[in-house]
Structures are given as C-alpha cells and as structure tokens.
User: What shape does this take?
Amino acid sequence: MTAVEPRFDAVVHAPPRLQICGLLAAVDTMEFAAVRDHVGVSDSVLSKHVKQLDEAGYVKVGKATIASRQRTSLSLTRAGRAAFAAHVAELRRITEGL
Amino acid sequence: MESSRVDRDDAAAQLAALRNDRKVLADRAMQPWWYDALLGTCVFVLLGAQALDDPVATVVGCLLGVAGLRWLVSTYRRLTGTWVNGFRDGRTRKAIAVWLVLYALVVVPAFVLHLGYGQHWAMAVAGAVLGFSIAVISRWWSRIHIAELREGL
Assistant: This one.
C-alpha cells in the first residue's frame, strides 16, 4: 500500500465539504439527493459547496434521465480522491498520540 | 502552516464524523435478497438463451437478460442513491477473482460442448450454475464491502 503524504487542503477542509468528500470517497457515484440527505443541508447550500469542489477539479457532476426524471450524480475525480486522502492523512498526523 | 488552524480535538472529531458517515453508508449498502435472485436469473437467461434452437429466441433471451441487468443497476441506484464499481480496489477483489475464475471454468467447457459437439444443454447448465454462483458471490461481495466501510477510513 502506498503511503499518502499528509497535506492540509483548504478546499476539502470546510466541514460540509469534508463530509461530502468523505461520502463520495466511499462510493463511485452518489445521487445529489442522497448526499443532501446525508449531509443535512438544503439543495442550494449543497450546490454551492459542490460548485466549489467542482471548480477545484475535485468533483464531477453527472446528469442523467432515469424513468423520465432528471437525476444528478456526484463523484470524486482522481484529484479529489488524492486531495481527500492527503487531507485525512494530515488529520491523522495531527491526532497522532491522542 | 495552514494545518495549525486545526487543533487535535477538531481533527479527531472530524475523523470520527467521517468514520460515522461510513457506518451510516454501510447500514444502507446491503441490497435486498431479491436483487441477488434477479441478478442470478438474468445471468441464467443470458447464458441459457444460447441453448435454444431458435436464433430469434436466443436473441430475445439475450435482450431480456441485458434489459434485466440494466433495470437492476438503475433500481439499485434508486434504492441506495449510490453506485460502487464491482471491480473497485480493495478486499472485494477476491470475490471478483473467484467469480471470474469460476466463470471461465464453467463457460469455456460449456461453449466447447455447445459449439463443438452440439450439446446445447450445456449452456443451460452453465447458466444455472453461474446464475446461482453470482447470486451467492454478490452477497459475499457486499458483506466484504460493508465490513470495509465499517472499519472506517
């Protein structure tokens, strides 16, 4: 297993975004509505944070029509996964010895 | 250094929250039993259709199997709100490896019997064996995945 270099990431760090990245890191894709329900924020608040992650190149937003309904799915990009893993490694480094 | 803005207690709380989120995901990750039963049925239909003498029936069987698999994927997504690639990295790889080896061991001889010796029944038997196997392996895969989620980050 390759060791991850600890690195604080200001984009990932904000609590709602850290939680969003944590959820997306555990899956390949997650529906926008499922993320919203997990995180417990409104559509607009989630959209704002997703936009910031998208602009950083960390999240990919996908849209598909399933059963005549428009569905939005979110997934972490390779860069997003790397940034999240490095940020978690940094959190672990900070808590070492606790 | 930017990380100085995060003290030890905050970092520990954030890690605990991330682990808790994974546990919540794990609680919802196991598919219902009928999902695996239908998955096995689709595999049986796809392979078993090769045993039919009528080419039209074979094509219809294949289309039904593929349509069933597509429906299962969209249903899983609707039920859980998530999708996880079966070939993902991690311990679930061993379940996939077992499936691929079993698939090759069953399908290759079945196709040889079917195409080389005209023993069409072989494909129906292969479909039944692999249909049952994928149903069992699918649940095994999910148990491994759920255990990984519960272990945290």
Observations:
- The beta strands of chain B are 82-83.
- Residues 9-150 of chain B form one domain.
